[in-house]
Amino acid sequence: MSPLDRLRGVLTPSPRVVDWSLLALTTGALTTGIVSLGTGHPSGALLFIGHGALGVALAAVLAVKLRRVRHRVTDRRLWDPATPFSILTAVVVLSALGTGTAWAFGAELPLWGWTLLNLHIGLGLLAVPLVLIHLRARYRPLRRRDVDGRRDALRYAGLLLAGAVAVRGESLVARALDTPAARARFTGSRPTDGEGNDSFPVTSWVADDPAPVDHEMWHLRVDGLVEEPLALAHADLSPNVTDRALLDCTSGWYTEQEWQGVRLGNLLSEAGVRDEGRWVTVWSVTGYRWSFPLVEAREMLLATAVGGEPLSHGHGAPLRLVAPDRRGFQWVKWVERVEVRRRRDATQYLATLVSGL
Ligand code: HEM
Ligand SMILES: Nc1nc2c(c(=O)[nH]1)N[C@H]1C(S)=C(S)[C@@H](COP(=O)(O)O)O[C@H]1N2
Ligand SMILES: [Mo]
Questions:
Q1: Residues with CB under 6 A from ligand 2
Q2: How many degrees, rounded to 5, is the angle at CA 40 between CA 37 and CA 44?
Q3: pLDDT tens digits, residue range 247-301?
Q4: What is the dihedral of CA 234, 235, 239, 245, to 10 degrees?
Q5: What is the pTM of this model?
Q6: Domains, the chain, ranges and CATH?
Q7: Using one digit for the tens of pLDDT, what is the confidence trace for 114-152?
Q8: Is the peptide bond before 293 cis (omega within 30 degrees of 0)?
Q9: Ligand 1 surroundings by CB, under 6 angstroms
């Protein structure tokens, strides 16, 4: 046995542990990936490192697995109806790993308005049904005798540690080579340059693309659990505060701008929040909405201007929410209603996908 084979033997757990690790690592990568989309505050930075580390670990375990099963792919006599799906699963998972890694190193690839990061997220989501189909055909229980407790624990501690080191190394390399990822935030988003409407992209979900809002007809309603509901015309707003705040979109860019507008807390005080009011849902004319704890919402801004210019239609005129430390998709555009509620609006997740349809 060559020293390399011996090393491989020491590092490799039993086949079933390898397969179940693939399940655990894909589940972990998917979960951290999804949760990270809603994370905008630096206190969540570990989540992004964890996601990368799980990805690196997944790549390593997948390499072991594919080495083991490659004859089942290359030898056509061993194919069964599930085999094409297994191969597709491997292709999609490898592509998700590849696009994620390329993005971390600073690659750019705008495809039909998609960033490499969008593509990575799409492939990650696509992997879920494929792994489930694969599991349906190839499921084997994990038995006591498959597991070598202490050794497997050490193997996986080492693997995740190596993953975290690799992720750290990735960002150092990106910085040394001064790739576009060099100036990325902890979320992986890269900065735009300049001030005002034209200095950052107009970004909307699925189909949220309303006609320009007629400022004369438009009203802002403040209602729900308030003493006195308000309906304010555009001329009733006095945009007298300016905040510098950073908008970080999950498609991989961020921008820091001066936003001018009205403090949400002032509007809420004017309407008088009732004692039961705990959450604030901010509604767009399209039905798109997001909710925030009352205390946090009070500090937010409803902006009429950015970088000294009146907001353009694309950026949410006449009024858009400025939600510091929240991800871009929570910065509701074309706001027409502020609703005080007892609880968070559970349907908001769906609304981001179907509003505007
Ligand atoms: C990232 C996720 C995974 C990928 C990309 C993947 C990929 C593959 C591929 C390409 C094959 C060979 C073709 C075939 O026999 O169908 C295979 C076989 C197999 N897979 Fe997976 N797999 C994954 C996860 C899992 C999981 C979670 C389990 C079970 C818990 C599993 C159990 C098996 C079994 C039992 C086989 C038959 C071959 C053998 O055991 O040597 N796989 N897989
Ligand atoms: N009503 C509404 N508000 C929205 C969106 C949307 O699709 N509809 N997109 C969100 C997303 S994903 C981001 S990143 C920001 C982008 O703001 P911008 O278009 O001004 O750059 O707006 C958010 N607000
Ligand atoms: Mo976004």
A1: 200-205, 208, 249, 284, 286, 288, 314-316, 328-329, 331-334
A2: 90
A3: 999 989 999 999 999 999 999 999 999 999 999 999 999 999 999 999 999 999 9
A4: 20
A5: 0.91
A6: 3-184 (no CATH), 197-354 (3.90.420.10)
A7: 889 999 999 999 999 999 999 999 999 999 999 998 999
A8: no
A9: 15, 19-20, 22-23, 26, 62, 68-69, 72-73, 82-83, 86-87, 89-90, 93, 131, 134-135, 138-140
